[in-house]
Amino acid sequence: MEQSSYSNLATTHLLGSVPAVLNEEKKASYEVPGANMQIFPPSNGGGGYQTLGAPTEVFEQQPPNNWKGVFSISSYTQYFNVDTDVVINRLISSFYPIGGDFFSKIDANPDLYGLIWITTTLVFVLASFGNCATYLTQKHSDSSTSWSFDVSYVNVAACGVYGYAVVVPMAFYFLLRYLGSNASLIRFWCMWGYSLSIFIPTALILLIPVEILRWIIILIAGTASACFVALNLRSYIEGNDLPMMVVASFLLQMALAIFIKVWFFP
Amino acid sequence: MSNSHSDTIPLHASSQSDIDEIENLIHASVQSGPATVHPARPPSPPRASIPVSSSPFIQSNIPPPSSLSSSSSNQKVPSVPAAPPPPPPVGNSSSIVATGFGPPPNTLTEPVWDTVKRDLSRIVSNLKLVVFPNPYREDPGKALRDWDLWGPFFFIVFLGLTLSWSASVKKSEVFAVAFALLAAGAVILTLNVLLLGGHIIFFQSLSLLGYCLFPLDIGALICMLKDNVIVKVIVVCVTLAWSSWAAYPFMSSAVNPRRKALALYPVFLMYVSVGFLIIAID
């Protein structure tokens, strides 16, 4: 069956269409009237193609295949295709724990910019404000201490934050795949990355050297972040009954919050 | 054939005068101008133009009459022991310039101080272009056309050393953190711009980010010498602003204007973290 005859169809101007494999020598003849090819909705062409069988790619939720190899920058630019206002919009929406619609917001265009730079900012903020907070706490209890900068805070912050932000979404992704449901690693990374953004202003507030206040603040922030993660995860995997995953994600985020408090702001 | 001798390059006392001969040739050729490039000498195969190598320079067929004796290892040069007359521009007309490299082939024979001086002057001129307030500042996209990585290397190492000296404990860890932060940071910032769809040349950007560290170097030096917190904060703020001002036009012109803030924020973050390190190291 000549699948390559579909190469004659004039569909490449349509959004979302993926050109079929071109086969030069067969170029001649067969011109499908193709009326139904022209009219399907351009934004999501999955339905239209299926009437012709599967020679052309079904347009699934993964982006079209721009992968030019691991070492080529252009294969990663598709994950950074965001403008300033888009990033700010996503950042602000991550502060509202109750929304539950983050995945639909990022569905068409998930980005890794947020993940990378929010985690990096958090590492810096934890290392610097952690040192300040430690100093203030010691000064509070024993007013003769002098400032000392502990550079190991940078190492611990880097390992902790980067490790969490990279490993936890991967674990959830593999787990969900194993259990059969559909998951997208990039979207998970994106969501978890933005969920960490609430800890940045929190770290600023945690400078106040009153112990009770610190615990209250971190619990509030941790709960907000964990709710954000859990609710979004639940809305993403709806249809599959996996409450344990949702609860696990909540608990992991809370654990991160408590670790931040205990290590950096004692 | 002269080649047979030319595999070994004996370092006689004659070498020095041979080198002088080469210098003379070079000066003569430079004076005679590039017009005499490429007289198309068939017998000479194309070769790498290392002046003191044994590769047959063009003149191997036309050794100036006095040269014949032995060590034609300095081919263009009639070997000295025969007390040659200083070779007239016979040798020059195609010798050096024809290699296509122009003046640079003599970098192997020049004194080390000349090499160092050349690199230093390049560093200084790049600094003046990039960092110092300059009302005739060029279009930043073309700034640092003549990029090099020595300058950034010196500045990063100097900053790491200064921070390490200032620290009272964990000195080596401080150096490691500072160096890693700056080096990896420059690479990551460049990659960030490339990933956002911007157009920059990788090494040019590394070079520029390294040069923009110069104000922070000065700040770190001042903070090391003067240990007052208020002074440190002020000095670091000023030098931080200066560094950011230097880096801003280059980075912002490299990306789509709608993504300018996305490209600039990481630069700002890196300089702020370095500034914090400078203040905080006690």
TrEMBL record, chain A:
The chain crosses the membrane at residues 112-131, 151-176, 188-209, 215-233, 245-265. The keyword Acyltransferase does not apply. Coiled coil: none annotated. It comes from the Eukaryota. This is Protein YIP. It is a multi-pass membrane protein. The lineage of its organism: Eukaryota, Viridiplantae, Streptophyta, Embryophyta, Tracheophyta. GO terms for biological process: vesicle-mediated transport.
TrEMBL record, chain B:
Belongs to the YIP1 family. Residues 144-276 form the Yip1 domain. This is Protein YIP. Residues 81-90 have a biased composition (Pro residues). It is found in: Golgi apparatus membrane; Membrane. Residues 1-103 are annotated as: Disordered. The chain crosses the membrane at residues 149-167, 174-195, 201-222, 229-250, 262-281. GO terms for biological process: endoplasmic reticulum to Golgi vesicle-mediated transport. Residues 1-17 have a biased composition (Polar residues). Keywords: Membrane, Transmembrane, Transmembrane helix. Residues 49-80 have a biased composition (Low complexity). It comes from Durio zibethinus. GO terms for cellular component: Golgi membrane; trans-Golgi network. PANTHER family: GOLGI MEMBRANE PROTEIN YIP1 (PTHR21236), PROTEIN YIPF6 (PTHR21236:SF1). Its main location: Golgi. It comes from the Eukaryota. The lineage of its organism: Eukaryota, Viridiplantae, Streptophyta, Embryophyta, Tracheophyta. It is a multi-pass membrane protein.
